[in-house]
Amino acid sequence: MRKAITTLLTVSALALPVVNTATAATKTRVVVHKFSGTTYQVSHFGELKVVITVKKTTKGKKITRRITAVSVPIYPASSGRSQYISENAIPILRSETLSRQSANIDLVSGATDTSDAFVHSLQAAILKARKA
Amino acid sequence: MVAQIMGMPILIDVRDEGAHEEDMERAFDWFRWVDATFSTYHEDSEIRRLGRGDLDFADAHEHVRLVLDRCETLRQETDGYFDAHASGRLNPSGLVKGWSVDCAADLLRAAGLERFAVSAGGDMRIVGRNWRVGIQHPQQHHGIAAVLDVGDAAVATSGAYARGDHVVDPHTGRPPADVLSVTIVGPELATADAYATAAFAMGARGPEWTARLPGYEAMTIMTDESVLTTGGFPGV
Question: What local confidence, expressed as pLDDT, does residue B173 receive?
Fold first, then answer.
């Protein structure tokens, strides 16, 4: 029987360094938040969780959010195959996340087990970031 | 919101204004019921009981009868390339995923939502216009092969990269040669997903077969990296 592990994390700001910068014309406020995605069971390989760091810039009424870092604090590393995935795929996926942001893709069709969990955990983190 | 159900991550992305957590929870409850009823892993699911002969078709839940009837129709439509008995025992999972996503989308629409996506393991049903869907590159683990601009549509991709070679040609028992992945876009995910599985299993014959599907468009990435699309396939 397959074990489905679902750990829906509540919104948690892991770090809240706040930087205020004021320009002559309009006030610019920069806030950096960390958002953690959902923890996934990657078939039988182990668990995966994505945490993103988002820089929110408020300039007058204009708000821009940018992912400045992606980390994978929980990833499968138990067996030979999952070791391979952890060491090779995850760093690649990290850089891809940053480029996907510029591609502005809503969803991805046809992902593999690992990137599926990665994409979905990431999506969950982005959804939190969008509301914050 | 995302949850791990039916052995895969299921994502519900609602873009309507306001809070819709309760609607999404109801949709996840639906998927949990589908999992318990159609699972090939749970000993006491209706599918396992039907497979063992402990349950008669006539006594099965109406949804189970509907899905199995539809599996049979699809088997005929696809010349046997989509087959719920391909593995040697009853496994309608290939249809259950898409069908349950379609039902979840209907449930959310009935709740008044107008702009959302439901994705199960990389196959999705989209409601509302202008969604950008990336198609996973079949060879580059981190790459996107195409970006589609779609609205009110289902997108299903079948390829050799998803969970190893899990799609086999039911006529040979081997994974198909010549084709890396097939993406189908159309109104319903149940059909789009089954067509993607069948067209992929057909190998080199797949693209020609997809050109004859009314209401469904296809993109096939061949082993030589050539990309074949049907006439109405959305912007690549």
Answer: 72
**The whole model's pTM is what?**
0.70
**Total of domains in chain A:** 1
Using CA atoms, how far apart are residues B91 and B166, in angstroms rounded to an integer?
Answer: 13
Check A43 against B119: CB less than 8 A apart: no
Mutate to test the interface with A, among B4, B97, B150 (most CBs of A within 10 A): B4
A89: chain B residues, CB-CB within 8 Å:
141-142
Q: Quote the minimal CA–CA distance from B162 to chain A in Å.
A: 5
- H or E stretch at A3: none
User: What length is written for chain A?
Assistant: 132
More confident residue, B35 or A39: B35
* DSSP one-letter code for B89: S
Which CATH number covers residue A58? 3.90.1010.20
Q: From CA B152, how far away is CA B109, in angstroms rounded?
A: 12
Q: B228 forms bridges with which residues in the sheet? A: B220
- Residue B56, helix vs strand vs coil: coil
**What is the tens place of the pLDDT at every residue in B170-216?**
777 777 778 889 999 999 999 999 999 999 999 888 988 998 899 99
Cβ B187 vs Cβ B217: under 8 Å: no
A108/B183 Cβ within 8 A: no
Domain B2-229 of CATH type 3.10.520.10? yes
